[in-house]
Amino acid sequence: MSTPTAPDLTSTTTSNPPTTTTHPPNPNSLTWSPSLTHPHRTTLLSHKGLTIWLTGLSASGKSTIASSLELHLLSPPHNHPTYRLDGDNIRHGLNADLGFSPHDRTENIRRIAHVAALFADACNIAITSFISPYRADRALARELHRERGLEFVEVWVDVSVEEAERRDPKGLYQKARRGELKEFTGVSAPYEEPEGAEIRIKGGETSVEEAVGQIVAFLEGRGYLNKGEVQDGGLVEM
């Protein structure tokens, strides 16, 4: 196994060379130093980063699947740096100022998409687990990754409202039907089903283990979990 060579940040022959922004010399001017590109990081770390975007109704099982998937990818044989973003670490911190109006939902997803892209750019696997009810918002998240040359895998955890309400551990659907929760997806707010998700998991028919296996099989089939050196833009297994 050869040791990846650190990239020459001064080179002008790379396909995406780092750039330096200069300003007129004054006390307030800033000079941006060259930084590593995503291909450079992939070469040095010998693995890719990407975002796995789980979407579905509340109580569809997204978070349970995401948690199990995170552990699976962190463990042998993959040992891949992986981090899960969900309501517990986003809604109570970065997005604590947001509610559940259509505007706030859109802003919630916009911020999450940017955070996930940063993780993916750092060659981590970011797993997001949010209802993300609007197609336009999910399309924005996908496009943000595409613009940066990052992989984006949308996973639809598909359950009916009736099934989600039956398994609802927090009783949120009942509260929403009593009017105690406003703008609740599936009751008083819409969920726009994905039209082009890479993976569709039938939540009412699939166990957590089977769902994780389905996602991992897709990732392996695309070569996203390969470890190796990057040569001419491609990952070469070692």
How would you characterize the overall build of this protein?
- With 238 residues, the chain is of the alpha/beta class.
- The chain is 38% helix and 15% strand.
- The chain has eight helices and seven strands, in the order αβαβααβαβααβαββ.
- The protein has helices at residues 38-45, 62-74, 87-94, 102-121, 135-147, 161-167, 172-177, 208-222, and strands spanning 50-55, 82-85, 125-129, 151-158, 199-202, 228-231, 234-237.
- The strands form two sheets. The chain has a five-stranded parallel beta sheet, sandwiched between helices. The protein has a two-stranded antiparallel ribbon with strand order 6-7.
- Strand 6 and strand 7 form a beta hairpin.
- It is globular and about 55 Å long.
- The chain starts with 37 loop residues before the first helix and ends with a strand.
- 32% of the residues are buried.
Question: Descriptors for this entry?
Answer:
two-stranded antiparallel sheet, 5-stranded parallel beta sheet, 15% strand, 238 residues, globular, alpha/beta, disordered C terminus
- Tell me the series of helices and strands, N- to C-terminal: HEHEHHEHEHHEHEE
Radius of gyration: 20 Å
Q: What share of residues are in beta strands?
A: 5-15%
What percentage of residues falls in helices of 4 or more residues? Answer: 25-40%
> What's the N-to-C terminus distance?
6 Å
Q: What would you call the structural class?
A: alpha/beta
Task: Please identify the oligomeric state.
Answer: single chain
Major sheet description: 5 strands, parallel
Helical stretch count? 8
Which strand order spans the largest sheet, edge to edge or round the barrel? 2-3-1-4-5
The averaged pLDDT comes out at 84
Write down how many β-strands occur, each being a DSSP E stretch of 2 or more residues. 7
The global form is globular
Q: Return residue spans where pLDDT drops below 50 for at least 5 consecutive residues.
A: 6-24, 229-238
